[in-house]
TrEMBL record:
<dbReference type="InterPro" id="IPR003591">
    <property type="entry name" value="Leu-rich_rpt_typical-subtyp"/>
</dbReference>
<keyword id="KW-0472">Membrane</keyword>
<dbReference type="GO" id="GO:0005886">
    <property type="term" value="C:plasma membrane"/>
</dbReference>
<dbReference type="Pfam" id="PF13855">
    <property type="entry name" value="LRR_8"/>
</dbReference>
<dbReference type="InterPro" id="IPR032675">
    <property type="entry name" value="LRR_dom_sf"/>
</dbReference>
<feature type="transmembrane region" description="Helical">
    <location>
        <begin position="422"/>
        <end position="443"/>
    </location>
</feature>
<dbReference type="Pfam" id="PF00560">
    <property type="entry name" value="LRR_1"/>
</dbReference>
<comment type="similarity">
    <text>Belongs to the RLP family.</text>
</comment>
<keyword id="KW-0812">Transmembrane</keyword>
<keyword id="KW-0677">Repeat</keyword>
<protein>
    <submittedName>
        <fullName>Uncharacterized protein</fullName>
    </submittedName>
</protein>
<keyword id="KW-1133">Transmembrane helix</keyword>
<keyword id="KW-0433">Leucine-rich repeat</keyword>
<keyword id="KW-0325">Glycoprotein</keyword>
<keyword id="KW-0675">Receptor</keyword>
<dbReference type="InterPro" id="IPR001611">
    <property type="entry name" value="Leu-rich_rpt"/>
</dbReference>
<keyword id="KW-1003">Cell membrane</keyword>
Length: 468
C-alpha cells in the first residue's frame, strides 16, 4: 500500500487493539500528524516511523504500548510527543538532546509510564512549552539545564523519586512564561528558594509531599494566568528575534493539570486552565509564620498549607482572598483566634483548621460559615469553643460582646457559669438564708423555742456519743 501522500492519520478514541503494524511498505514519508490515542494498542513503537521525516505530532497516549523510547525520535523534527499512560520503560534517550528535536519540540508528555533513570542534563529545548514527566520512576536531582528553556510554561515532575533541592534557577528572570510548577510527591529537601519570587506569571505552585523545610518566602507571587499575562513585557523578547506565533497560548495544546482542592484531586483541561490558580505546600517540614503577604494572592482558588510545623496566628489578610474556594491550614502549630474577617470569603467551600492550638470562638455563624463548615473543620483545638463545636464557651474566655449580641451569642450564654460567678452567687445566697432564719426566730416565739430545744437535744446526744 502506497501512502506517500498521506499527511494526517487520526484514529483516536476507538477500540483498536494489537500491535501498530507500520512498515516501510506503507511509505509514510509525508506523514505530519499521527494520533492513535485512547485505544488498546500494544507492543513497541514501530521503527518504520523513523522514515517519517516530516512528522510533527505523535500522539499515542492511553494505550498499552511497551518497550523503550526509540533513539531515532530525537532525529525527527517533532513538535509534540504525547505518550502518557502506557507501559514505556527505560531512560529518556540522549538523542532528545540533538539539535533536530531540541530546536522545535513544544510539548513533551511522557507521564504515567515506567520511565527510569535521571533527567538528562543536556535536555535544553529552546522552544519547549510543556514538560510532563509525572508518575514515573525518575530519580536524582532536577538539572539546572531545565532553567534554560526560556519558553517553558508547564513543568510537571510530580510523583517521581527526585531528590536534592528545588533549583533556585527556576526563578530565573528569563522564564517569563512559567505558569505551572508541579514538583509534588518527590524527595526534595532544603528551602523553598527566594528566587521563585521573580516568577511573575506563576499560576500554580505545588511542592507538596516533600521534605522541604524553613519558612515560606514572603515574596511569592501566585495569580491567575489571565491577570499574570498582562505583566509580561513582550518587547523584552524581541532581541531574541522570536515571532509572536511561537509564544505560549498561540497554539492549542492537550494540556492537563492535576490539582488537589477541597480535599479531592481533580484533573483540569482546556480553557478552564486560564482561571486555575493556587498554592499547595502541604506535607512538608515548613516552619515559621504564615506570611501576611499571602493575602495578596487575590485570584487563587486554592491554598493548602496543612501538615507542616507552621506557628503563630492566622493572618487576617487571608480575608482578601476573594476567589478562594478551598483553604486548608490543618495539622500545624497555629495559635491565637481564628480571624472573624474570614466570613468575607464568599466563595469558600472547604475550610479546615483542625489539629492546631487555636483558641476562642470560630468565626460568626453567618454566610457560608453558617452551614458549610461543621465541627470537623475545627476538631483537635482544645481551646476552641462555641458552635459548631459541642463545647460551650465560659464568660472568662468569651470575646467582648457588642451592644446587640447575635442569636448564637445569646444561645451560648445559656451554658455553665464560670467558677468566680459561682462563688459570688453562693456567698450571697448563703447570707440571705442565714438572715432569713434569724428573722424567723426573732419574730416567732414558737419556732424560737423549737430551735433551742433542737440545739439542746443535739448537744446532749453528742455528749453521750463522744463521752461514753
Amino acid at each position: 500500500m502506497n501512502c506517500s501522500y498521506l499527511t494526517v492519520l487520526i484514529l483516536s478514541n476507538n477500540t483498536l487493539h494489537g500491535q501498530i503494524l507500520f512498515s516501510s511498505i506503507f511509505n509514510l514519508r509525508n506523514l505530519k500528524i499521527l494520533r492513535l490515542a485512547q485505544n488498546n494498542l500494544t507492543r513497541v513503537i514501530p521503527n518504520a516511523l523513523a522514515n517519517s521525516s516530516k512528522l510533527l505530532i505523535m500522539d499515542i497516549g492511553y494505550n498499552h504500548i511497551s518497550g523503550q523510547i526509540p533513539g531515532w525520535m530525537g532525529d525527527l523534527g517533532l513538535f509534540k510527543i504525547i505518550m502518557p499512560n502506557n507501559h514505556i520503560e527505560g531512560p529518556i534517550p540522549k538523542e532528545f538532546c540533538s539539535s533536530g528535536l531540541s530546536s522545535v519540540l513544544g510539548v513533551l508528555d511522557l507521564s504515567m509510564n515506567n520511565i527510569s533513570g535521571t533527567l538528562p542534563s543536556c535536555l535544553v529545548l529552546s522552544n519547549i512549552n510543556h514538560i510532563h514527566l509525572s508518575e514515573n520512576r525518575l530519580r536524582g536531582p532536577i538539572p539546572n539545564s531545565l532553567c534554560r528553556n526560556i519558553f517553558l510554561e508547564t513543568l510537571d515532575l510530580s510523583h517521581n523519586q527526585l531528590s536534592g533541592s528545588v533549583p533556585s534557577c527556576l526563578g530565573n528572570s528569563s522564564l517569563l512564561f512559567l505558569r505551572y510548577l508541579v514538583l509534588k510527591h518527590n524527595n526534595l529537601e532544603g528551602e523553598i528558594p527566594n528566587q521563585l519570587c521573580q516568577l511573575k506569571t506563576l499560576s500554580l505552585i505545588d511542592l507538596s509531599h516533600n521534605n522541604l523545610s524553613s519558612a515560606i518566602p514572603l515574596c511569592l507571587n501566585v495569580t491567575a494566568y489571565e491577570e499574570a499575562i498582562v505583566k509580561i513585557d513582550y518587547n523584552s523578547i524581541n532581541p531574541f528575534g522570536i515571532s509572536f506565533h511561537t509564544l505560549p497560548g498561540w497554539f492549542a495544546t492537550d494540556e492537563s493539570i492535576e490539582l488537589t482542592t477541597k480535599n479531592t484531586s481533580y484533573s483540569y483541561k482546556g480553557r478552564i486552565l486560564v482561571y486555575l490558580s493556587g498554592i499547595d505546600l502541604s506535607s512538608n517540614k515548613l516552619t515559621g509564620k504564615i506570611p501576611p503577604e499571602m493575602g495578596n494572592f487575590h485570584t487563587i482558588i486554592m491554598m493548602n498549607l496543612s501538615h507542616n510545623s507552621l506557628s503563630g496566628a492566622i493572618p487576617p489578610s487571608l480575608s482578601k482572598l476573594g476567589k478562594i474556594e478551598s483553604l486548608d491550614l490543618s495539622y500545624n502549630n497555629l495559635s491565637g483566634s481564628i480571624p472573624r474577617e474570614l466570613v468575607e470569603l464568599n466563595f469558600l467551600a472547604y475550610f479546615n483548621v483542625s489539629y492546631n492550638n487555636l483558641s476562642g470562638k470560630p468565626p460568626p455563624r453567618t454566610a457560608q460559615f453558617a452551614t458549610d463548615f461543621d465541627e470537623n473543620s475545627y476538631w483537635g483545638n482544645p481551646l476552641l469553643c462555641g458552635k459548631p463545636l459541642p463545647k460551650n464557651c465560659s464568660k472568662s474566655i468569651e470575646e467582648p460582646s457588642s451592644s446587640n449580641p447575635t442569636k448564637d451569642d445569646q444561645e451560648e450564654d445559656g451554658g455553665f457559669m464560670d467558677i468566680e460567678s459561682f462563688f459570688q452567687t453562693f456567698g450571697v445566697s448563703y447570707t440571705v438564708v442565714l438572715l432569713g432564719i434569724a428573722a424567723v426566730l426573732y419574730i416567732n416565739p414558737y419556732w424560737r423555742r423549737a430551735w433551742f430545744y433542737f440545739i439542746q437535744r443535739l448537744i446532749t446526744t453528742c455528749f453521750y456519743i463522744f463521752c461514753h
